[in-house]
Structures are given as C-alpha cells and as structure tokens.
Design goal:
Oligomer: homodimer
Radius of gyration of chain A: 24 Å
Distance between the termini of chain A: 44 Å
Shape of chain A: globular
Largest sheet of chain A: 8 strands, mixed
Helix content of chain A: 55-70%
Structural class of chain A: alpha+beta
Largest interface: A-B, 100 and 100 residues
Strand content of chain A: 5-15%
Chain lengths: 591, 591
C-alpha cells in the first residue's frame, strides 16, 4: 500500500476552477475566509491526514476497537492521534465563532474531512458524528444547553453520537421502545439502542449522546418522538464533570469493515434511568434529528470520495511499480500501467472519483449558500438545490465507492486479495456507506417522492437549466458537448416519464427510484467533467500551471463521457421500460 | 443466514427445458447416463451439500486453514466432511470409468459442483483443483503415471494442486525461476511457488502437485516450460506411500475471503530437490497446463453462480422475515419483501443468477460435445463454441457475483455488515473469482484476440446465428423478442466495429476488451432469459408442473430484458465511442 498523499492540486482545481467556491469568501458570514487562508488550511489538513491518521489505519483494522468490561479500548495510537486532532483545532473549522469555531464555510471543512476519510475512515467517523451533534445543538438546543455543550464539542474535547436505531426495526422509527419520563428539571431515559458509532471509547473525557425517544405518554408513531442529550458524565454547573450517567456500552459489533470505529449496543437506564435533557420541543425529535442527518448524508457521500481516492492512489502506485507482461506495442517488459486494460481500470477509478468529488463539493456549496447566501432568493434556491442533491450525493457516491475500491483490488491481482497489501480494507470499509445514514433505497425514494414529485419537477428542472446553460455557454468540445447534452435530454425525459406516470401504481415510485437516482448521478458527473474539460482547456490555453495535470483533466473528461456516461442511458431505460415489470412484482414473485 | 437448499427445480428447468442436456445422454460415451439417474444425482448432491458442506462454512471462515510447523490444519469438521465426500463417490461423477469414474457428462458434474460452491466455496476448491489435475493426467501423462495417480485422484483419496505463479510475476509465466534438473528416471525440482490453493492440508494421505517449471537448460520464455508431477509422498511400486518428498508449505496467506481454503507458499527442493516426473513432452508445459485451466475457468464462473445463489437465498429469507416499514399500497406494517426497492434488489439478484447459471451449463454442454459429440462436425463446432464461451463465462459470472453478493448485504441493511449474519462472507469469498484462473482482463483479451479476431469473427457469427434462430423460431413475446433482437444487433455491430478497427492502434484490443466481454455476457443472458420465457410459457399452457414457478420465470425474463439488458448497450457504447480515448491513454495520463 502506498503512503497517502492528500490530492491538494485536485482540490484546488475543483474549488477554484470548477466550482468557484471563492465566491463564498465574499459573503459576510465568511469574513474569516480568503483564498490564501483556505489554501493553507487544505495544505495543512492534507499533511495532518497523511502524517497522523494514515499511519494508524491498518493497525486499527487489525486490532479493532473492542468492548472490555463496559469500556471500549481503541487501537494503538488512536487516542494520541485524536488528541493531536483536537490540539490542532481541526474540529472547529466550519463552526460558529461565538462558541469557539473558526467560521469557515462548510465546503472548506469538507476538504479536510475528505482527507480524514482517505487516511482513516474509522477515525473520521468520530468527528463526523460530533459535527452532527453540534448541528443539532446549534439549531435546536436552549442557550443554556448550548453554553454547556457547544464549546466542548466544537473544540473536540468531547465527542457526539447519534442514537436512533433499535434492534426490532432499523430504518423504521415509528415504533421505538426506548422511553423518556419527566423527572425534576430533566428526563429519565430507559432503553437500548444499536449501531451507535463511537458510542463508547477512551479518547475523550466525555461523550455526548443525542437520543431519539418518545415521552412515556406520547402518541404512537414518529410524531411522538422527542430528542434528548444524554452525556456519559453529567456536567456540573461550573462545567466540570460530575457523576457517571446511567448509560453504558453493552457490546460492539464484529463487522466487515471500519473495524476501528466501535459500533456499539448502548444501554440507557439499567438502574434509575439515564439523565437526559430535551433538545427542541416535545414531538419534534425526528425533525430535529433530520438536521443532523442531512449534514451526515453529505459526509457519507464524501466517505465514498475519500475511500475512492485512497484506493486509486494505491492502485496507481502499484501499477507503476509492478513489472509484468510485455508492451502490446514494443514487446518490451513493462510495468502493468502499460497495459491498456489496467489503464482502463485506473481511468475508471480516477474519472468516477473526480465526478463524485465535484458533486460532493457542489452540494456542500449549496449547503453554505442556503444558510449564508446574502439574499433570500439565493437561500431559497440553494435550499431546494441542496435538498435535491443530498440523496444523489449520498447514494451515488456510495454505490460507486464499492466499484472503485473493487477495481483497486483488481489492479493488484492476487496481491489485492491478500489482507497484508491493505487495499482489501478499503473495499471492506466502503461497504457500509451505502447502508448507513439512510440506505440508498431510502435515498432514492426521498429523491423521487420528496425532491422530484412533490414540487412537480420544479427543483429538478432548475438543476437541468443550470446544465443546459453550461452547454450553451461554451463549445470548444462539440463531441463532448453533444454527448453530455444527450445525457441531459434523457434525464429530462425520464423525469417527465415519472411525473406523468407515477400515479399508475402504488409501487411505481419505489420500483423506479434507484435507477432514476443512478441516472441522475451519472448525468451530474458528466456535467462536472464537461465543465472540467472547459476549465482545463482554458488553463492550457493560458499556459498557466502544470500542463500535464490539465491535459489529464481533459483525458478524464473524455473517458468519463464516452465510457461512463452511457450507463446513464441504461439506467434511464431501466426506469422507462422497466417501471411496468418493477411495479408488477410482489411477495410471490420469488421462487 | 438461512439454511442452504439446493435449487433442484431450477437445475431441472435449465437442464431439461432450457438447454436440452438430455440429448447428451444418448451419446455412446455417456451410456451410463439417463434423465432419471441425473435427477437422482442432482437430488442427492443437493442434500449432501446442504447437510455436510453448508454447516461448516461459517466455522471455516472463522477458524481459517492455517500453517503450523510445516503442516496445514483445516477448520473443525473439514477432514470428516471431505472423507464423506470421498466415501460417497462425489469426486468421480464425470470421470473415466477405466480409472474408477462414473462416466457422466461434465455438465452433470457441474450441477453438483454448483451446490458445493453454494454450500462451502472454500471446500469446493479442493475437488475443483483435483479435477484439474485429473484432466492433465488424462490428457498428457504416460500410461504408467496414469495408472499410479488417476485412480487415487478420481476417488478423491488424494487431492491435486496447480503450481504456476511465482512471487515476481503473477500472470506472466515467461520468466519462472523454479528449475527442473534430470536425475535418473525423474527430475529434481527446486524453487518457490505462491498462491497454491489447498497446497497443503490434513484431509488426505497424499497431495499431488502439478508444477510448471523450465528444465535447467531450456530456452527462455514460455516455450521452455515443462510440466511435472510432484507428489507430497513418493509412491512405491506397489502403490503404497513411500518417503516424504522434498516439498513443503512455507506459509498460508491471510486473505479477504475463502479463509478455509489454504492459499500456500510452497517450497520445492530445499534439500536435495523435490522428485518430479514429467507430464507430456519437454517444452509443452504451458500447453498441457491449459487443459487444466480451460476446465478450471468454467468452474470459477460456476463459483460465481454458487455464491450468487447462496446470497440470493439468504436475502430472500431475510426479506420475508424482517418486518419493517409500511406497505405503499395499504399502509399496513409489512415484511421488507413488500417494498418495491427490495423487490428490485431481489429480482436483480435472481435474474442475474439465472442468466449466469444458464451460461455456465451451456458452456459445459459444449465442453461435453467438443469431446464426446458423435461426429467430427459437432466436435469442431463445439470446440470453437466452448473456446468462445469460456472467457465470457469466467469473467461475466465473476464480475456479477460481486454485484449479487453486495446486493445480498444491502437487503440485510445494517445486519448485512455484521459478520455474524454470514452474508458478508459471501461477498468476501466472491472477490477472488474475478482474479484467479486468469484475471478478467486476461479473459477479455483472450476473447477479443483469440476468439473474435483470430478467426475473423467466424465463431462469434456462429453463436449469433444461434441467437437469431431463437428469435425467428418463436414469437409469443413480441416485446421481449424485439428488445432481445436489438441487443443481438448491437453486439453484432460492436463485433464488426472491433474487426474493422483493431489495427488502428496497438492498444486498441486491450482498450475495448473488457467492455466487449461484458456486452457479450449481457446479451447471452438475454438469450437464455428469452428462451426461458418461451419454455415457461409452454409449460404454463400445458398446465404441467408448478405454475407459480413458471410464472416467476416469465417475470424474471421480463425484468432482466427490461432492466438488465440495457447495460449491454452501455458497454457497447463504451467500446465504440470509447475505443479512441481508451487507446490514447498512456503511463502519463494519471496525475
């Protein structure tokens, strides 16, 4: 396995040349940001990821985080690495300066987060969950709770968790058995939660659990749910840590991957009841939790980018070193990177990763603009755009990371299947991303029902107008432009087909959703690659910068549009020709 | 994880209704075979797989086979299960009666082999390697060597291995460092081989290594290679076991999957030299080894079928049991099999598995007919057809098994990522199949260069004529027929495109090969599904048998043709529009 190197030039190209992220720095809320500062942050984050998180990725996979006598022991080096992360202020990049944050755009935080995910996905999950908890506090908690918890979470001194799932129903939250009972100024929580990422560990003094549960007398269903903060240690008035709360880890799961990230079964209130404080209003728990989940969904899409980048770097390095076979042109002995099918695999990895990355940062930009845009129109536009791009980012990137990390193994041949090489870990680590934070099936249903159908296609149409404008405003590559334009038309056609026919069957939306989402992902990818080709061409013409880098951007765009974009048509056909058979299936169809 | 049940009805449908395997039983060489006998064999093999091999699949994954002091210890129960396999004569189904075999068609052996692979892929590899060794002996060894080794291999009392790869070059055999030196009536072998499946174990008294190595004075390159048999224990003239040979296991690999199958580093001749006997002529080693490899390639494709079937059964069982969410039609609480996206995943798994299975058995039939067909024309026709279908079977099925086993995890949600559930093992076990026995890139190059271009497209044209005849000879499903016909035309177009343009660049063949192979796989799949629809329709009309089973065959065919076949067009576009950019890539294209 190669040493990880943060793709700083790639990031710079995406932020500055492809997406115009610097326009965010002009917004009043981001007065701290500047292009120079962001470059420096990206550079330093890359070094930190490579030097601190990457070296303990394999030991984390081998040792696992494991529950021992009610505590979780993290792998060698994790506690020290996390402390360095806190000391260097990496948790606070995009957080509110009022509580100690650095006030940079979310999009800038995402670049650093990409590097953490490439270097050590298991470790990256810990701050990711903390960031989610911060968002919940910031949006819904009382000022009193904010004052106690936000500074500690934003510094990273305490970490956060998210407690939704119970064993009898994973994604279905309508029938939770955990209960909260009012008691003095707080609530007593009793029940068991599963799949709690970093639910217990030895890296910080305190852990802040965000728990979804109904009040004891609440109505049944999701509308009865409220949200609570349940700290591992209670916090005294002076901010010092008090008693141990009545919450503990029961066990950790033995998983396919992300072994250093403890996935805990958590038990609340085995004795008197775990002390919790309500966040937001009674019955608003799920709505509050969605704040966290939307945020987390983009970050899970980004995990796909991070692991894909890592797999690509390892495969590229191996392909350059490994001498085997002969050149089809000269007959000379060559490194395997000289074989056209190896080049295909590498370019497939590369061009998909580039497309995924652009989608993640574009969605992140909309997240910044929906909150910090300088007029209401901008904020409204980007609210819709962010809502639309979120399920696509989460699901498309996490479907593709399985392909890219699998290709990473394939380039290594037999060595890829041997765990010592390290690339099988990326494949194992990646596999959870299409499941957690809402399975990709749930993302697809969200896209079709809430993002396409609910507003009668307005949001999708707006996005496709942006695409059409890209096509019209430039034309240096007529062949790429025509292929991309055909992809856009086809997506429009599929969108209209769904809008026109979804009332045909109760099963229609569910039957077409996945294929529609995948089609949209591939067309978005072509959009970014087309714009990337234009941007690179401009750079080449100006003679600025690294000409090989820009020439390779053009190659990647051509490869993607000619070899990957055709998949969008296949998914579109599967929607339009396949909706009938899809809607017709039932429980008896499988013998 | 559900208990495995051999898909006996499926097999019966494929053999009898879809492919007309019974016509083999009329051939003189298969006088032992009859439809009744084959039904009984399939039934019993299914029971054996379910009752003996399946129960130790998980323990094999947990314990691994491991090297201890120069021996390999297999997981609990493996030795006893293998002994039962030998006692029941399962090794000898399709072997030569002259040496103790049962003289059934290879295609019948493949049904049993599918079950072994579903039940316990690691275990199934051991007889698979032995079968390869048997083929090498049968085709190339002297009568003396045959008399010593064939009865013991055919009974399964001894097992076989295949020793090609060395650490400095995996797929490239032109520069092997292992050497063979003549000595008395035998050769002394010295060198190290890696990736030796079941290279050492404790299940049998002897292990028969087939070793590829150059004679000490042989010319460089693959033409200098010869083939040797190197038994673990030398064999006395009376057939009893003699001295331990100078061959030993150095270590076993720690792998992503197939953990119960020991993947050994083998050392030959650390002392005086390992005693080996030449098989075939000097310098003919690679040609002889290809006998084994062709055979093994179909069996690896079949591993894809076996693991896909297993993953499907587990997912279906879980989807029926797991209650979660509400019906989109009635709003009632339902099992997840009631959700259309879960139905999509299950039908994708099912329809791909069915297509893969039909391809495997169709290729196997050609293997039977190329050797045992009753006239030369038949044998010639099926020699070409087998040669063409082999790389498609190997590579297409092993690409798809990664998708199908991944969907198996996805249907389980978070539970799928937890190793205890057992379905992650299928995903891990499957990942090697696209690598070993010739990577899928090598298969694709074989298809394009040796099977398409070398005979100017004659073999491909013959296969496509068969497809066209299927379309013309029936027409109960005009919509399916038209879609299938379009797939055939497109494949013809891509084939012609390659034939017309492959001289454009030295890199052309390698750049298009993978996408061409995948296109051919999907079109073949549509062919089998189209015929399956016709066969099922006939059964439904006749009122014979299980009408739900046949109705579901129709559903699977419609699903495949409308939702999976569109992928063939995407791969075809990637060949025709992507050949240019593919051929243009070079070592500098990746920054």
């Amino acid at each position: 396995m190669a040493d990880y190197q943060a793709p700083v030039s790639e990031i710079s190209f995406v932020l500055n040349d492809l997406l115009d992220v610097p326009k965010l720095y002009a917004l009043p809320d981001f007065s701290e940001a500047s292009a120079e500062l962001v470059d420096a942050v990206v550079e330093e984050a890359g070094k930190f990821a490579a030097q601190v998180f990457a070296p303990i990725n394999r030991v984390g996979d081998l040792q696992h985080s494991r529950a021992v006598n009610g505590e979780v022991v993290t792998p060698d080096g994790f506690k020290e690495a996390y402390q360095l992360f806190v000391d260097n202020g990496w948790m606070s990049l995009a957080q509110d300066p009022e509580y100690g944050g650095q006030g940079l755009p979310f999009t800038v935080h995402m670049t650093a987060s990409e590097f953490w995910n490439s270097a050590n996905t298991s470790m990256a999950l810990c701050p990711m969950l903390t960031a989610g908890a911060i968002d919940v506090f910031a949006a819904h908690a009382s000022n009193e709770l904010k004052a106690i918890y936000l500074p500690k979470l934003i510094s990273g001194e305490w970490t956060g968790t998210m407690n939704l799932t119970e064993s009898h129903a994973g994604s279905d939250l309508s029938n939770l058995k955990t209960k909260a009972t009012p008691h003095d100024d707080h609530y007593l929580i009793k029940g068991q939660k599963i799949y709690i990422t970093w639910g217990e560990h030895d890296m910080t003094d305190n852990i802040v659990h965000i728990v979804l549960a109904p009040l004891a007398d609440a109505p049944a269903g999701v509308k009865g749910l409220s949200l609570f903060v349940v700290p591992k240690f209670l916090v005294n008035e002076d901010g010092s840590l008090g008693e141990r709360n009545d919450v503990k880890v029961v066990s950790t799961e033995h998983k396919l991957g992300i072994n250093a990230s403890p996935t805990c079964v958590m038990s609340f209130g085995e004795n008197a009841g775990a002390v919790g404080y309500m966040i937001g209003e009674p019955g608003q728990g799920l709505a509050c939790m969605f704040t966290l989940m939307n945020h987390a969904r983009l970050e899970v899409g980004l995990e796909g980018v991070g692991l894909s980048e890592r797999a690509y770097q390892d495969a590229l390095s191996y392909a350059r070193e490994r001498v085997q076979g002969r050149s089809p042109a000269t007959g000379d002995s060559i490194s395997i990177i000289g074989h056209p099918d190896v080049q295909r695999m590498l370019m497939q990895m590369k061009s998909l990763t580039d497309a995924m990355r652009a989608l993640c940062y574009d969605a992140s930009m909309s997240h910044d603009l929906r909150t910090h845009g300088d007029d209401e129109e901008t904020r409204d536009y980007h609210s819709t755009r962010f809502a639309l791009l979120t399920p696509v980012t989460k699901a498309w990137c996490t479907e593709l990371v399985n392909e890219v990390t699998s290709l990473g193994i394939q380039v290594h041949g037999g060595m890829g299947f041997v765990e010592e090489t390290g690339v099988a870990q990326h494949y194992r680590d990646a596999r959870i991303t299409s499941i957690y934070e809402g399975t990709n099936g749930i993302q697809a249903n969200d896209l079709v029902n809430r993002k396409l159908i609910r507003d009668g296609g307005a949001g999708v149409k707006a996005l496709m107008n942006e695409m059409t404008q890209s096509v019209e405003s430039a034309g240096d590559f007529p062949e790429l432009r025509d292929a991309f334009r055909a992809g856009v038309s086809e997506l429009q056609e599929t969108s209209n087909y769904i809008l026109d026919n979804h009332k045909d069957s109760d099963y229609f939306e569910g039957a077409v959703a996945y294929n529609y989402l995948m089609q949209m992902g591939y067309v978005c990818g072509a959009w970014y690659h087309y714009r990337s080709a234009l941007a690179a061409h401009k750079k080449l013409q100006s003679g600025e910068g690294d000409s090989q880098f820009y020439a390779n951007k053009l190659l990647a765009a051509r490869f993607y549009i000619h070899q990957m974009l055709p998949r969008a048509f296949a998914f579109g056909s599967a929607v339009r020709d396949g909706a009938g058979i899809g809607s017709e299936l039932n429980e008896q169809s499988f013998s």
